[in-house]
Specification:
The complex is a heterodimer of chains A (234) and B (415).
Chain A lengths: L5 E15 L2 E13 L3 E5 L6 H9 L6 E6 L2 E2 L5 H11 E5 L10 H12 L4 H14 L15 H13 L5 E5 L7 H18 L2 E5 L3 H5 L3 E4 L4 E2 L8
Helix pairs in contact in A: 2-3, 3-4, 3-5, 4-5, 5-6
Chain B lengths: L2 H11 L1 H36 L4 E5 L3 H9 L9 E2 H9 L3 E13 L2 E6 L7 E2 L2 E5 L3 E4 L7 E4 L1 H7 L6 E2 L2 E2 L15 E7 L10 E4 H7 L1 H10 L12 E2 L1 E6 L5 H11 L2 E4 L1 H45 L1 H9 L4 H33 L1 H8 L10 H27 L2 H6 L2
Parallel strand pairs in B: 4-12, 8-11
Antiparallel strand pairs in B: 1-14, 1-15, 2-13, 3-4, 3-10, 3-14, 5-6, 7-11, 8-12, 9-11
Helix pairs in contact in B: 1-11, 2-9, 2-11, 2-13, 3-9, 9-11, 9-13, 11-12, 11-13
Classes of the chains: A alpha/beta (234), B alpha+beta (415).
Chain lengths: 234, 415
């Protein structure tokens, strides 16, 4: 990774997760580096720590110790307010359950993403949101509410919302998990295409090893969560 | 999309709960507005009229009853006093004005008041350049069986100048009341609307009152074996309204009249102040307490509603945090919803309260004899409504803090 801009750097991150059967349960990530534009699959069984890893990178979870550097900023050192702003500008999220705001249209969902990230003025937001929704194939669904959209369309809105701010990092937590295979393939391709176009790093959590194999790099997350923490191959 | 717009959208996503909460706030506010406005208006109207006369002299009894019956045309008179008593008072230089009042008949429930034309020459003590009772049309009576009627009497009975009517015996009309059909009155003057009790009065000469009842008086005198020559001496008035040269001496005069004569004097302003402090103020406080209770219940409803709403929206709020929303923005969003709900509730309550007063103004005037400036909002009301708005905001604070302090990670991932 010499010479490449690092978007994610994790060093000796540790989180105490409580205990189970009298044994402490911890999350431990000795080291992870992801370069700008790199597309990485995070694989492993449920509960192995994939989502915890994403939360750590996004600053939604703060490690008890260790460093988590995103786009040159150690997110563990940021105040909650600065972390919120940083997250909005630097990262996009796509979730398995879409996580759209039900009371707002597709267009408004994307605009709200820009509003909180403060990446565009009020007048610019509508134009950018419209363009992005058109790009993900939802030209005729701008004013539809989430309840009026299919699962695939909802996930496309979520993708549009995640990338409209042109973040250097996209965090996707099993974004195809709730979709049928054909739709999943389409959404996966869309995410990859946009990340490539925007030179955006992708951390893609999935159980689907076939899908993971299509990405240039895989990180096996088994062993991140355990009684004592353990080394993980990266 | 601004936080205001988002807050508004969230409010109307739960239409029923929002409307019910709004109704609670609006009812409380309407109650506060109407109680305060009623108190303010009635107190100022009663005070204006009570300050027009320094003393009222009448038969012994309740001083408040004497004032209410002779100044405000409410309640029953305490009885009558000899006409000679009025003459004696009028002759005293310490009184600059002495107006007799003679009650006994009514016209469709409006009291027929025997008095003197000087009644219409009274100037307003609040503004001595204007007359207390101005004429809308016509003139003061200058002969018996001519009548000057108040604005409300004219309006409600469709009476105009030149019309005639007959009075009914007694101060209220009941089934079988005797009508004085042989003594019709002719309308010669109609008073302009004053907001005072004169609006509800029918004013005639004392001679008219005595004339109508002369046959009864003669009969009574003969039955009592009195000399017909004494009939004139037995003429009576119900009360005498007095203005003094030195109003500061009225308490002394009250004591003097009480001790030295068979009649009684009352100070209108004192009686009305006492009535307000002893009767109306506690009643107002009870009503305000009820209104405050309604508002408190509404505030608690806001708190419960928003707490529940924030709980249901945990995921939405967490998504916003993931999108970069600051914790203060989440706090602001929930607070704005509470503020919007309260402000709309207060506005609706004001409309309801003041609108109700405007619509029911005539009915209130019939009942309490005073006009209502229905849309006036004074400083006390503004302050009270400010407290209501603040209460609504505070009610939203707890759920807002709850939303502010909740880590989003749990609601995003279920971790």
């Amino acid at each position: 990774m010499n010479g490449e801009e690092r978007i994610v750097e994790i060093r000796n991150a540790f989180i105490g997760l409580g205990s189970s059967g009298g044994q402490p349960v911890n999350f431990q990530m000795p080291s992870l580096e992801i370069a700008r534009g790199e597309q990485v699959a995070l694989t492993g069984p449920s509960g192995c720590g994939k989502s915890t890893l994403l939360n750590l990178v996004s600053g939604l979870r703060v490690p008890d110790r260790g460093e988590v550097v995103v786009s040159g900023t150690d997110v563990t050192k940021l105040s909650p307010g600065k972390m919120d702003s940083f997250r909005g500008r630097t990262m996009g999220f796509v979730f398995q359950t879409f996580n759209l705001l039900d009371g707002f249209t597709a267009l408004e969902n994307v605009e709200i993403g820009m509003r909180f990230a403060r990446t565009a003025s009020g007048s610019e937001r509508r134009a950018k949101a419209t363009a992005m929704l058109e790009k993900v194939g939802l030209k005729g669904r701008l004013h539809s509410y989430p309840a009026q959209l299919s699962s695939g369309e909802k996930q496309r809105v979520a993708v549009a919302r995640a990338v409209v701010n042109l973040p250097p990092l996209l965090l996707a937590d099993e974004p195809t998990g709730a979709l049928d295979p054909a739709t999943a393939t389409g959404v996966f391709a869309l995410i990859r295409q946009i990340c490539t176009e925007q030179n955006c790093a992708l951390m893609f959590v999935t159980h689907d090893l076939e899908l993971a194999a299509q990405l240039p790099r895989q990180v096996d997350c088994r062993g991140l969560v355990g009684a004592h923490g353990s080394e993980v191959a990266v | 999309m601004s936080l205001w717009k988002m807050a508004w959208r969230y409010l109307w996503r739960r239409t029923l709960v929002t409307l019910l909460t709004l109704a609670g706030i609006a009812l409380g506010v309407a109650l506060i507005c109407s109680v305060l406005a009623l108190h303010r208006e009635s107190e100022s109207s009663f005070a204006k009229e009570s300050s027009q006369f320094d003393l009222v002299v009448g038969a012994k009894g309740s001083p408040l009853q004497l004032v209410l019956s002779s100044v405000y045309q409410l309640d029953m008179p305490t009885g009558n006093i000899p006409y000679s008593r009025y003459q004696a008072l009028k002759a005293q230089p310490r009184f600059i004005t002495a107006i007799p009042i003679g009650l006994g008949d009514n016209y469709h429930g409006y009291r027929i008041i025997g008095t003197e034309p000087a009644y219409f020459d009274l100037t307003d003590r609040g503004d001595s350049t204007r007359k207390l009772y101005a004429f809308k049309e016509g003139r003061a009576f200058d002969a018996d069986y001519e009548a000057v009627i108040g604005s409300e009497v004219a309006r409600k009975n469709h009476l105009k100048l030149g019309d005639t009517f007959v009075g009914t015996h007694g101060l209220v009309t009941v089934a079988g009341s005797e009508e004085h059909k042989n003594f019709p009155y002719k309308v010669v003057g109609i008073l302009a609307d004053s907001g005072l009790s004169a609006d509800r009065g029918v004013f005639v000469s004392m001679g008219s009152v005595w004339g109508i009842h002369a046959s009864e008086a003669e009969l009574h005198a003969k039955l009592a074996g009195a000399d017909p020559a004494e009939i004139d001496a037995s003429r009576e008035v119900t009360a005498v309204l007095l203005r003094m040269k030195i109003p500061g001496m009225r308490l002394w005069v009250v004591q003097e009249i009480g001790k030295k004569t068979e009649s009684m004097a009352a100070i209108p302003v004192n009686e009305m102040t006492q009535m307000f402090s002893q009767w109306l103020k506690p009643l107002q406080n009870v009503l305000l307490a009820v209104a405050a209770l309604v508002v408190v219940v509404s505030a608690l409803t806001i708190m419960a509603t928003f707490y529940q709403s924030a709980e249901r929206r945990r995921k939405d709020l967490a998504i916003m945090r993931a999108l970069g929303a600051h914790r203060m923005e989440i706090l602001g969003l929930v607070l704005l919803e509470a503020l919007l709900l309260t402000l709309v509730g207060v506005a609706a309550g004001m409309l309801l309260g003041h609108g109700g007063l405007a619509i029911g103004g005539d009915m209130l005037k019939d009942k309490i004899g005073t006009s209502i400036s229905a849309w006036k909002v004074d400083a006390i009301e503004a302050k009270a409504l400010g407290f209501v708005a603040l209460g609504g905001l505070l009610a939203g604070l707890l759920p807002a803090i709850f939303a502010y302090s909740r880590p989003p990670v749990k609601d995003l991932t279920g971790a």
